[in-house]
Structure formats: C-alpha cells, structure tokens
Amino acid sequence: MQRWSFFWLLVAKLAVAELDCDGVTCEVESIHLLQHAHTREVRKSKAPERPEALASPFAEVLVLSINEEKYKLSKAELKDQGIVAVSRVKGFNASRDSELSEALALLTEYGNANSLHHTVSNWMLCLHTSPGNPPNFGAANSEFWRNFFRSSPRNVSELLDRDQHNCVPKVVAIAAAHLRLWKELAEGKLQTKEVEEKDPWYLVMEEDVDLCPYWRQRMEKELPQAPADAEIIKLYFFGHWRKEDEVKVSVRNDSEPATVTPFLDARDPLRGFDLFKAASYEFLHGASWSSVPVAGFYAGTQAYLIRPSSARKLLKQIRGKPFQDIDMTMMLSANNYVWRRVLAQGRPENVDLLQDGATESHGSAARTATATAPQCNMEPPSDQFW
C-alpha cells in the first residue's frame, strides 16, 4: 500500500512540475520571508513597556534543547519579555551514537520501538518535514526503490539499520526527547519553584522557536476561552487545517450564531482523503517539489502548553503503541487544541541570508502555496480544495 501511495505521489508531482509561481506569488513569498527574518526586531519594537506587570499564565518555560548557545538565546529573549522561570530540558543529539542509543532505549522502555505505525518506513521518514526543513524527495526515492523487493522493517532498530540517508535518527531523537520531558514533568522533576495551582500549565518550547509579538497579552485574554477538556494546547502548528475544526461556544439566544473561539480542535491529523486533497491543492496552485508538506494536519511540537496530569495521561496512552512522528502520537493520545492565530514561530537558522534576499530554494522551503507555516498573529489562509 505504501509503495503504490509513493508511486502516485511521484506521478502527481511530475504532472505539476511545470507549474511555477508567478511574479505575484513569488513576491508575496519574499515579503513574508523578510517579515519572518525581522521577527526579533518587530518583537522588540512592539514589546509591552512593563512585561512584568502581566501575570504569567503558566508556571514555567521548559526549553527542549541540544545546543547550549541556542538555549541561552531563548532564555535571554524570554527574560526580555518578563519570563524568568525558564529551564533547559536536554534533548537527544541524533548525530551522536551514544545519545541515539539512549533515545532508542527510552522508546523501548515504553514499548514504542517494538512496532511501526503504518505511516512509518525508511522512505516515508525521508519525507519528514518541518518549517525550514523541506522533505528530501531524492533520498525518499532512493530508499523506496532500495527496499522495494524487501519486507518492511518491523521495528525501530530495523528502521535504523536500513537507513542509508540519515532520515531516521532525528525523528527517533525528537520522539524520545519529548517522551523524556513528559516523564520528568509527570514525576515532578522539572518543577523548580513553588506554585499555587495544583495542576498548572507549563510551556514547552523547542530551542529554535520565538514567541510572537504580543503573545503574552493574547494568551492572558484567550487562554480562559480554551475548551475545558484541553490537555495540550499548541501555540504553533504547520500543515493544513479544517474549518470544521473551529471550536465554537453557543450563545444563550438560540437564534444567534455560535461564537468562534481562538482555538481549533486538533483531531484526525492523518485522515487520508484530507491529506490527498491538501497535497493536490498545493500542486494545483504551483507549489514546488520541496515545498509541499508531507505532514498531517496541525503538525509540529515546536511550542505547546501541557499540564503534569496531561503528561501522565500521555505516558499511559502511548505505552505499547507503534512508533510514529511524536506530534502525531501526541495528538492521538490526548485532547489537543491549537491556537488558530499562532503565538510562536520557528527561528530562521540563517538570518543574514534571509535579510540579504532568499533564493528560490529557500523561499519554497519556507512557504508553500497556502502558507502552511502560519504567520505570527495572522488568521491562517483559507485551506479549501478549490
């Protein structure tokens, strides 16, 4: 099934390979890239004069990091915004064999390394994407044909053994890093100060994420509107979204329409036909080979709110489940919601390059036909098939 899916994906891309963005689309992409590059300057210019005057809506920020310098940058920027309760949670460096082995051992402890989800294979993990990190179709094609006449890998160890293009280790390391964070949060090991609330929110951020201008004011106002059953609330997502997932609140007068809240219900991230429609929409609107996200709806673990009780539920729900991308695992194991107008955004790896003017390849990697990496504080674009 996976082989034929990949075959038709390649056919679809070849059919639209001649489509290229027109001058207007390219110009819009460049404008948004420059805006993204200047996120830090914009944030400083719009920062509240007295950030300490606003109460923190969470107990602490937990920065998941494998790079000490990136962590220090994140901590300094959060301090500038009045957040001083910041801790580093060390992730796993996938390029180091010892840490990769440690990550595999943790996944094995929870029974997540013994089998694979049907969406996971060597070639499919080469299509793994995130904002600024496009899918590697060349590696996926090579892995696909290399394993065409072989049986599918049965577990994470076999997945790693067959990996010829370094597509698997990072996915394994990221999954284990979030799993370890949930474990330590559930056990109370990450609490560094006394908090009055019994089960407070914690903000988890990956090391290369920036918070948007006015995030704190918005969170103060909008978090109380979150659904009562929310166990995880994502400040950021990429990929596509559904209008039907809008969270609405009924008004007292039945004749009046329901009020739309700031949140989307992050459910059914891997609904097959929706993924097909989303990719087709991108192709038909001129997206390039490297810019179509091969990801589920509401993807990403860049920044999210989580409670200790939510972490305990996740650990219970994921035990023994097949291995897959950690963001999909998280959404399928707890009640997840996302801010429709994102409060966080990925930090460009090379700001100087973006300031000097992004090349076509960088532009396609950072932005797709429907802007599947949402912009700070902006309503996500319409995500309809036509």
Please provide a written account of the structure.
The chain is an alpha/beta fold and 386 residues long. The chain has one domain. It is 40% helix and 11% strand. The protein contains 15 helices and ten strands. Strands 2-1-3-8-5-9-7-6 form an eight-stranded mixed β-sheet, with helices on both faces. Strands 4-10 form a two-stranded antiparallel sheet. It is globular and about 60 Å long. The N terminus is likely disordered.
What's the topology here?
Blueprint (H helix, E strand, L loop, with lengths): L1 H14 L7 H15 L1 H8 L14 E5 L2 H13 L5 E5 L6 H13 L12 H4 L11 H10 L9 H7 L5 H19 L15 E5 L2 E3 L3 H8 L9 E3 L11 E4 L9 E7 L6 H13 L18 E4 L1 H11 L7 H6 L4 E4 L4 E3 L4 H6 L3 H7 L20
Parallel strand pairs: 1-2, 1-3, 5-9
Antiparallel strand pairs: 3-8, 4-10, 5-8, 6-7, 7-9
Organism: Durusdinium trenchii
Keywords: Signal
Protein name: Hexosyltransferase
